[in-house]
Amino acid sequence: MLSGRRARRAAEITDVSCAPLEGLDRNALGVTYWFEAPAEGDRRSVSVRLRGRLLEREGEGDVGGTTFDVVTTVHDVLPGSGWQCITTRVTDVAPGRWDVTATPVAGDAVTKNAPRSTLPPGLARAATSGRTGFGMVIDALAPGVWPGSWPALVGLGFLLGLVVQALLATRLGLSWAPLTGTTVVAGALGLLGAKGYFLLTHPEERKRSLKAPGMSVQGFVIIAFLVLVVWTLGRRADLGAVLDATAPGLFVGMAVGRLGCLFAGCCVGRPTASRWGLWSSDREVGTRRIPVQLMESSTAAVLAVVTAVAVLTSSAAGTGVVLAVGFAAYLIGRQLLFPLRAVGRVTTYGRVATLVVASIVLVVGLVLMALRG
To answer: Is the pLDDT of residue 294 over 60?
Structure first.
């Protein structure tokens, strides 16, 4: 488990030193409330009222409020799913040390003027204190989230992919040095494509800052491979060999990079009470979830091995068919995993269309490989 254990206190404040970053972004206060789901019964919502007051102001000026009163809710808490937590970020508050009380309230349609009632069963009132911090850092921190894990693991996956690509490029008669250099450029541009594709398929995110997290692997692959194709055609190199040499490294990068998604709290699975679930967080709600990131990582790892073996042993290696078959199989696996994610697809027919096209490509590719012996 990443952090699925009982906390020392029912309420905690995200306390992190950000002195070098002060003044670069808004101040924020991160407050986490812990509770245990009931062992049996129906799904329910859990709401917590957070009241805060400034104890000690830091810095000069009179910026931000000195009190706050907010209600936060966890919807559809599953019986038997163990310890849960919800992390709330309070912005537009004065920098300094705060005292916060967390009071569970009945239901999820709570108004600030509602009378205080008996605490819901199994939920405790709690108090804590702590300091504000740099807004972007507070946004990224929550129980079960490892700061910096996404760029670290994605970067590691990319480097390992480059090594695999270089080894297989030599096997297919390609010069690895210029291919590696071009792939680095393609990867950098692919990150822009990943961000653009994410914003295109998630219209609600366009209103947020570009600093907000969110990328899509489809956008990365489209732009990165477009750069590789243009470079290959410009050099009049063997396009099929370049594509097939790149395929196993691509899947190695995806296998490692998806672990970064798990530890960073993105692309999370749906909550579950199953013993096979894994405690993880989406940076707001920490609970036992379907480990969909691990499933996709495992799929990519298997395809990395299969495509590498195909490049080394199949007579179809160097034609581009290995990449086509491998990526089609990956798309099918990815689309089958989408319903297990907490956030569903936003397109109406995109998933079905992708499954149909990828299945056709997979079948045709396998037939071509079989015909070549």
So the answer is: yes
